[in-house]
Amino acid sequence: MIVVFNPVAGRRRAHLLWRVLDVLVANGVRLDLAETQRAGHAESLAREAAQRGEHLVVAAGGDGTIAEVANGLMGSGARLGVIPLGTANVLAHELGLAFAPRPVAAALAFGRTRTLWPGQANGPGGTKLFVQMLGVGFDAHVVHSLPMPLKKIFGKGAYVIQSARELTRYAFPAIRMRIDGVETETSSVIVSKGRLYGGGFRLAEDAASGQPGFSVVLFDRSGPSAALLYGAALPLNLLGRAPGVRQIRARRIDFLQNESVPAQTDGDRAGYAPLWVCDAPAPIQVVTG
C-alpha cells in the first residue's frame, strides 16, 4: 500500500500516523509514504499510484486530503484507506472508522470495504470531488476567511471563533438555486452525502453516502441571529430540525448567478457560485476494517 500524507492537516496528530505505520510494518505490510507538497498534490500521487497497480491507497489527513485521494482513484478500481488526522474528520465519523493506532492498522490490513459515492462540484475553475459535503453561504464564508494559524492552534474551536468574527461582516445574500429543476431561494445551503456535519454532529438523517444523490439542507432564516441559532443547535444534534430548515433529496443542484457567494467542499475553499453539483462518475470502495 501507499500512504499519502498531508503534513499540514496532520501535523498536530503526526504521532498517530507513525504509530499506525509501526504496527503495519511490524506485521509485515509493505508500504511507501508519499508526502504532499501543495494543494492538489494528493490527487496526483493517488492517480500515479493507481496507474502503477497499487490496490490500496491510504489518505493520511483530513477530509480535504481524503477527497483529493478519492479523486485520484476515480475509475481505477483501487481501494481508499483512511488514517484520520484532520481537524473534524467528518468522513471517519460517518463511516465509523477507528481512530486509535492499532485498530486503524488492523482495519487497513484486514481490508473490508464499504461503498462511498462522492459528489462533484462543477464550476468555471473546473471540477472538484467531495466525499462528505459542499456548503454555499455563511459556513463557506467562514472557511474562506479562516486564518490557518488559528486553525492550527485551536482545531475545531477555530471555526467557532471565526464564525463569531464573521457574524457582522457577512452580508447574508439570498442564494438562488435550482434543485432537480425546481427553483428556490434560501440564505445558506449544505449539500450533504452523509448524515454528519462538523465532526460527529447529526445534520441529515436521510443521507446515504453509498448511494447516488444528496440530502440538500436549506437554511431559510437569514442574518446574525439566525446564524447564532443554527450554531447553538449544532452541538445539540438539532441543526437539521431547527426552525427555518428544509431538507430535500436531490440528484442535481444548480447555484444561479451567485458570483459573490463563497463555496466550500469538505472544509476546503471551493471558489464561488455559480456552480452545479452532481454525483461523481462512479463510487469508490473505502476500507473500513
SSE map:
Layout: E1 2-5, H1 7-10, H2 14-26, E2 32-35, H3 41-51, E3 56-61, H4 63-73, E4 79-84, H5 90-95, H6 101-110, E5 113-116, E6 119-123, E7 126-130, E8 133-136, H7 138-145, H8 148-154, H9 157-166, E9 175-179, E10 182-186, E11 188-192, E12 196-197, E13 201-202, E14 214-219, H10 224-233, E15 245-250, E16 253-255, E17 262-265, E18 268-272, E19 275-279, E20 284-287
Parallel strand pairs: 1-2, 1-3, 3-4
Antiparallel strand pairs: 5-20, 6-7, 6-19, 8-11, 8-17, 9-10, 9-16, 11-14, 12-13, 14-15, 16-19, 17-18
If you had to describe this structure to a student in words, what would you say it looks like?
This protein has helices at residues 7-10, 14-26, 41-51, 63-73, 90-95, 101-110, 138-145, 148-154, 157-166, 224-233, and strands at residues 2-5, 32-35, 56-61, 79-84, 113-116, 119-123, 126-130, 133-136, 175-179, 182-186, 188-192, 196-197, 201-202, 214-219, 245-250, 253-255, 262-265, 268-272, 275-279, 284-287. It contains ten helices and 20 strands. By secondary structure, it is of the alpha+beta class. A hairpin with a 2-residue loop joins strand 17 (262-265) and strand 18. The longest helix has 13 residues, at 14-26. The protein folds into two domains: 2-111, 3-Layer(aba) Sandwich (Rossmann fold); 120-281, Tumour Suppressor Smad4, CATH 2.60.200. The strands form five sheets. A six-stranded antiparallel beta sheet has the order 7-6-19-16-9-10. The chain is 31% helix and 31% strand. The mean pLDDT is 93.
